Known about the structure:
Blueprint: E1 8-12, H1 16-27, E2 31-35, E3 47-50, H2 52-60, H3 64-70, E4 72-74, E5 76-81, E6 86-91, E7 101-105, H4 106-119, E8 123-125, E9 130-136, E10 139-144, E11 149-153, E12 155-158, H5 165-170, E13 181-189, E14 200-206, E15 210-218, E16 221-229, H6 241-251, H7 256-265, E17 269-271, E18 282-283, E19 286-288, H8 291-294, H9 303-320, H10 324-349, H11 358-373, H12 378-385
Parallel strand pairs: 1-2, 1-12, 2-8, 5-14, 12-19
Antiparallel strand pairs: 3-7, 4-7, 5-6, 9-10, 10-11, 13-16, 13-17, 14-15, 15-16, 18-19
Helix pairs in contact: 1-4, 1-9, 2-9, 6-7, 9-10
Amino acid sequence: xxxxxRLEVGVVGCGVAGQAAATLLADAGHSVSVFERxxxxxxxxxxxxxxxxxxxxxxxxxxxxxxxxxxxxxxGLLSLNHLRHTVLDLAYGDLHPEAHGLGIHRGTLFGLLxxxxxxxxxxxxxxxxxxxxxxxxxxxxxxxxxGARHGPFDLVVAADGAHSRLRxxxxxxxxxxxxxxxxxxxxxxxxxxxxTAPAMLQQRVCGTTTMMGLxxxxxxxxxxxxxxxxxxxxxxxxxxxxxxxxxxLELWPEAAALIEQAADAGDFARATYRHVALPRWNDxxxxxxxxxxxxxxxxxxxxxxxxxxxxxxxxxxxATASDLAAALGSFSRRRGxxxxxxxxxxxxxxxxxxxxxxxxxxxxxxxxxxxxRAPGLRPMMTSTLAGLRRGWLSADALDAEGRxxxxx
Length: 408
């Protein structure tokens, strides 16, 4: 047990960050209650890319081998424009021959984390939507939408996502504007004969208004995503599958089999994103983690990885600090620099791929491909992709086996 002692912990949200944090804290001997607003916890979204950083946390949870078996190894990122000129071409192998990412369906990752949560001593409370927190001295109770209180807890971990209700309530000075662009997603059978580099996350772009991606996610499936302005993703507004099919085929004819599958099914998930920046990580005994604390656009593919690292850092700081206040301070210092970098880098990069600023598209096409080949810039770009950056001027290194080493 940690020097902090056994804590009563309430975790709000049963997503990637929430489940990982709850499991790690329960394994460490804390009494953990997880609150989920759905009667049956479920994932949202389609495929995601786990970086060496996120994979290291899954290894700590004992889930890495299952994830590798169910997902798809990703060796790099290849992005071309509509003229087939290279925009981005990055390889994890530049960092270490064994380094790689992992494409995995969000539902698969959720299932792994959920099964691991169920094996822990954490208590899962479903069909309870938490909307507020009430402080009582050094403790806090959570309040659900019907007014019932739960707790008190020594620590409340708010992991209720980018659209966090608790952030709105407790952090009125937080900035969380909606990005003007989002995506539609679909997962289809992986016809590898039409994919020129199946072990890559691939993108095709045309200017800054058209972007499509293909991410292998294992089990003979691939997730396809297509960028759209946020107003076209409003609830109740239908997706014109035929118009999308024609535009996608024009941009990426080699992926016709995948495009036709997605268009025929018409089963597109919609996703919008927020640029979340908090004035601080915690409000007394309430700590924000995951997208609730630092949601970004998915352009750098870091969302789930940052949330997993938050969960590990919280467990680690509670295991080494003398009291809760010291642990939260240590957590803030540990997670602040890398999260700040990825929030800033994602915010700066996104308009080059998703905006109505054509000059940015021209600059991207002219400069990014060259940058990928520049000796000074390529290592920085690759370490950024791999989730290793700690800031604009520093990055962590992989170990001798090509793995990201968590602090132990």
